[in-house]
From TrEMBL:
Substrate binds at residue 153. It comes from Rhynchospora pubera. Its main location: secreted. PANTHER family: PEROXIDASE 5, PEROXIDASE 72-RELATED. Ca(2+) 2 binds at residues 184, 229, 232, 237. This is Peroxidase. It catalyses: 2 a phenolic donor + H2O2 = 2 a phenolic radical donor + 2 H2O. InterPro entries: Haem_peroxidase, Haem_peroxidase_sf, Peroxidase_pln, Peroxidases_heam-ligand_BS, Secretory_peroxidase.
Length: 309
């Protein structure tokens, strides 16, 4: 019942978005946002992964910019939820893009659309796929820590849980695997993979030993970072899937994608065919970006991305 209702609403919202939404209302919007995003990644290459992840973590209520909202007296926002707390980053870059676009066309471009464009521009900058972003989202006036806790995937979850969380948003197992390929760039904190490198058996021993050097078994160094893909950590490619096939997935939630389960074949296919990975990743990002957006008279165009008007 839930899935049927979700699908109907999703399809309707999908057709409300259009790539040329700002062509007349703010023709400089896309180039203005792109400049800010590219400048930020030029200064810190890791920011590409952070901005893609920020867009991922905005699908709790649908892609509506809710992840950007700070807590208010009326709701506790999503930023302190377990999957986000002290780990999501890049909000200041979205704020900078918002200020830049407000300077050329105030009150027109939503923070939710900026998030979607930032993810695409980030992927493209680090040699990943590009795609046409459908636009016209409006911003939410609420956020939910409880929903974020319930719906966002975390590093310790098993395959069936991950499949279920993505299915709840209308994304199938293959789309879950291809979107997980974003872990070909970026870094993770020691606290998210410490149990894996000390206690799990489906891990390459040499890889585990190497990662232990920067991630002690006690509570020291829990914020220490390690690359999700140690081979080409700053370039978007299909090495992530090759790593999984050699038991070198950094997170538990990475390695379960290739661990004798139903997604093994998908991982193997993407490890062999980077073109298929790129094409499917782009398609999945478009689909994810179209999850239940606010359009028409729903929501608002926030003046500041972290606060409702």
């Amino acid at each position: 019942m839930f899935f049927a209702l979700f699908s109907l609403k999703h399809c309707q919202a999908y057709y409300d978005l259009t790539p040329n939404y700002y062509d007349y209302a703010c023709p400089q919007a896309l180039s203005t946002i792109r400049t800010v995003i590219r400048d930020a990644i030029a200064k810190e290459r890791r920011m590409a992964a952070s901005l893609i992840r920020l867009h991922f973590h905005d699908f709790v209520q649908g892609c509506d910019g809710s992840v950007l909202l700070k807590d208010t007296p009326w709701f506790t926002g999503e930023q302190t939820a377990l999957p986000n707390n002290n780990s999501i980053r890049g909000m200041e870059i979205i704020d900078a893009a918002k200020r830049a676009v407000e300077a050329v066309c105030p009150g027109v471009v939503s923070c939710a659309d900026i998030l979607s464009l930032a993810a695409r521009d980030s992927s493209e900058y680090v040699d990943g796929p590009t795609w046409t972003v459908k636009l016209g989202r409006r911003d939410s006036t609420t956020a939910s820590r409880d929903l974020a806790e319930a719906d966002l995937p975390i590093a310790f979850e098993n395959l069936d849980v991950l499949i279920g969380k993505f299915a709840k948003k209308g994304l199938d197992a293959k789309e879950m695997v291809v979107l997980s390929g974003a872990h070909t760039i970026g870094q993770a904190q020691c606290v998210t993979f410490r149990n894996r490198i000390y206690n799990e058996t489906n891990i390459d021993p040499g890889f585990a030993i190497h990662r232990r050097r920067g991630c002690p078994s006690d509570n020291a160094g829990i914020g220490n970072l390690a690359p999700l893909d140690p081979v080409t950590q700053n370039t978007f490619d299909n090495k992530y899937y090759k790593n999984l096939m050699h038991k070198r997935g950094l997170l538990h939630s990475d390695q379960v994608l290739f661990n004798g389960g139903e997604t093994d074949g998908i991982v193997a296919a993407y490890s062999r065919d980077s073109s298929a990975f790129y094409a499917d990743f782009a398609a999945a990002m478009v689909k994810m970006g179209n999850i239940n957006p606010l359009t028409g008279s729903s929501g608002q165009i926030r003046k500041i991305c972290s606060a409702i008007n």
